[in-house]
Amino acid sequence: MIRHLFTLIWNRKRANFLLVAEIFFAFVVLFVLGSLLVDNYRKYTAPLGYTYEHVWRVDMDPNGQPISRQDATFQRLIQHLKSMPGVRSVASTRSNTPFSFSDSSTDFKADSKSTNSDIYSAGDDMQDVLSLELAEGRWFNRHDEVAAHPPLVISQEARQALFADEPAVGKIVRAMDDKEFQVVGVLASSYRGRGEFQELEPAIFQRSENLVDPKDTTNFDRPRLLIRVQPTATAELEQRITKEIAAVTGGWKTTVTTLPEERTTRMKFALAPMGGMVLVCGFLIFNVALGLFGVLWYNISQRRAEIGLRRAIGATSSRISAQFLGEVMVVTTFGLAFGLLVAAQFPLLGVMGIRLPVYLASMGLATVLIYVLTAICALYPSQLAASVRPAVALREE
Amino acid sequence: MENVLAQTTSRPQATTETTRSAASQPVIQLRDIEKVYQTKTIETVALNRVNLTINKGEFVSIMGPSGCGKSTLLSIIGLLDEPTSGTIELDGRPVKSYSDKELASLRNHKIGFVFQSYHLINDLSVLDNVELPLLYRPGVGGKERRERAYSALEKVGLGARTNHFPSQLSGGQRQRVAIARALAGRPEIILADEPTGNLDSVMGEEIMDLLLGLNRQEGTTIVMVTHDEQQALKTQRLIRFFDGSQVQ
Question: Which of A263, A268, A281, B71 has the largest count of CB atoms under 10 Å?
Answer without folding.
Answer: B71
